[in-house]
Amino acid sequence: MKRPGWLHLYAIVITGAAASLLLWASFDVSSESTRFWNVFGGLLALALVAEAMSLQIGVGTVRQTVSFVPFLAAILLFGPAWAMAVGGITQLFAETVIRRKPALKVSINTSKEIIALGAAGLLYQIAGGTPDYLSFRINAFAFAAAATTYFILTNGGTAVAVSLSSRRGVGEAWNKIGGKGLLEDVLSSSIAVVLAYLYIDLGFFGLIFVVVPLFFVRHALQVNLKLEQANRDLLELMVKSIEARDPYTSGHSVRVAMYAKALARSLGLSAKEVEQIETAALLHDVGKIYEEFAPVLRKRDGMSEQERSLMHTHPVRSADLVATISSLRGYVEKCVRAHHENYDGGGYPDGLVGDEIPIGARIIMIADTADAMMTDRPYRTARSYEDVVAELEKYAGSQFDPEVVATFKHNTAVRRLAETREGADTAEHMDSPVAARKAVAGVREVMMPPFEYPRL
After folding, report:
1. What are the b/e assignments for 158-177, b being 16+ CB within 10 Å?
2. Residues 6 or more apart in contact with residue 99 via CB below 8 angstroms
3. Which residue(s) pair with 396 in the sheet?
4. pLDDT per residue over 339-369, tens digit each?
5. Which residues in the chain land under pLDDT 70?
6. Which of 178, 237, 299, 453 gives a 20 to 30 Å CA spacing to 93?
């Protein structure tokens, strides 16, 4: 069954589960019905406003919102049944009226919210919490358990949906949508406790005191998302600036990142490590932005020993530049520094051997070499995917990690990327300056040793 088919099956399953929870729940209202509906209406209104001000986070159409605050407050005040009602009504309205999503997404997102709130509310009661909208009561342990359950189920449910509707793994989707910030989410849920307390003591006016910190959280999310995007845009701009010096390497780093990501996934690495390796692959040549590399990058013939020595410094320069961004220090920095280390210890800059070389660097070495070999140069024709595999196998164990080479050979995603690239090159072939040069009689093909392909 294709992934869209699995997505429809997933929607059916969680919609059925949400409907079962709603049928099982007891929607009782005590004698203080006016007070009850005031509290319920206030939380619902606040949740709808929060959803209307949600932020898209760049993973498909996934959004971040602070509606979890009134949702979790509903668990403290009403328990699971009415908390599910607040969450379900909010999501249904937001998805259909505010965001106008298709029925499939409406079903998944609404059902996911109902299930998460139902499970979290039930756990709150099992752990000793007592919901009460007439007087403030809080069981800190029970609330922490409920909040953790809520975020795991909502982020996890979204990650599964993203995975089924794309080529991402569940772990990767979890990281991208913010699942790795679970602790921060749970800590920020303490605002729900403040909301419940103030609403019970001050009624509607209690909302006013909560709105400011509530939307401060939203502002913090917005600033964080903008900073992350700005950092990514800056890095990509640096990569494009380097590649602009040489039309033959245009798009090289992006393609290397795609190959590296596919290989890392196939090797069974964690979602976090896959993401780090992808980033390192994108930035592996970023040190070449320094002006001293420009004359060498523009050359169309071989390098002198002095120029070769200069080019051998670029992994260190790249790693030093990457390390200026605090979030990239450590593993990403090490992968960038070591991406020219040979498996047998004959590489540079540190002469690392075998497993001393970070697995990310071993992956990038192969991705970098493969893309360089499949790119037209003034002195040679681009190699086919089969030729590249043969070359990698020839030097497996000396230059390349044999396991990563085997993964490259048998990985269907890598082969698909390579074949797509070959097709694009063929379509543009006759219009390129490279093709014109090849048409000139007597042009001698100058081939450097295989390990030198990516260094030009």
Report:
1. bbbbbbbbeebbbbbbbbbb
2. none
3. 400
4. 999 999 999 999 999 999 999 999 999 999 9
5. 1-4, 29-32, 54-64, 167-168, 176-181, 203-232, 234-236, 238, 241-250, 300-301, 377-380, 421-456
6. 178
Residue 346 · residue 399 · CB < 8 Å: yes
- In the chain, DSSP finds a helix count (H) and a strand count (E) of 21, 2
Q: Determine contact, residues 47/67, Cβ cutoff 8 Å.
A: yes
What are the beta bridge partners of residue 55? 64
Query: Which string of b and e fits 333-370 if b means at least 16 CB within 10 Å?
Result: bbbbbbbbbbbeeebbbeebeeeebbbbbbbbbbbbbb
**How many angstroms from the chain centroid is the CA of residue 334?**
20
Selection from 69, 62, 63 nearest residue 83 by Cα: 69
Q: Which sign does the torsion angle of CA 203, 209, 210, 211 carry?
A: positive
End-to-end CA gap in the chain: 44
pLDDT tens string 196-229 = 887 777 766 666 666 666 566 656 666 666 666 6
CA Rg, the chain, in Å? 28
Retrieve residue 411's tokens.
């990985």
Within 8 A by CB and 6+ apart from 331, the residues are 273, 276, 280, 358, 360
Question: Virtual CA dihedral for 87, 88, 89, 90, nearest 10 degrees?
Answer: 50
Q: What angle (nearest 5°) sits at the alpha carbon of residue 287, between those of residues 277 and 418?
A: 45
Nearest to 54 by CA among 42, 67, 65, 40: 65
Closest CA to 154 of 113, 196, 211, 103: 113
- What φ, ψ does residue 206 adopt, rounded to 5°? -65, -30
pLDDT at residue 67 in the model? 83
Q: For residue 106, give the amino acid letter.
A: V
The predicted pLDDT at position 434 comes to 38
Q: Please, are residues 106 and 67 in contact by the beta-carbon 8 Å criterion?
A: no
H/E stretch holding 63? strand 63-64
* Residue-level pLDDT at 306: 86
Q: How far apart are CA 371 and CA 361, in angstroms?
A: 15
DSSP per residue over 420-432, as a string? HHHHHHHHHGGGS
What does the alpha-carbon distance between residue 366 and residue 244 come to, in Å, rounded to a whole number?
23
Q: Which of 332, 193, 337 is nearest to 273 (CA)?
A: 332
pLDDT of residue 428: 44
Q: What is the pLDDT of residue 60?
A: 45
Residue with tokens 């109902």: 114
Element (DSSP H or E) covering residue 339: none
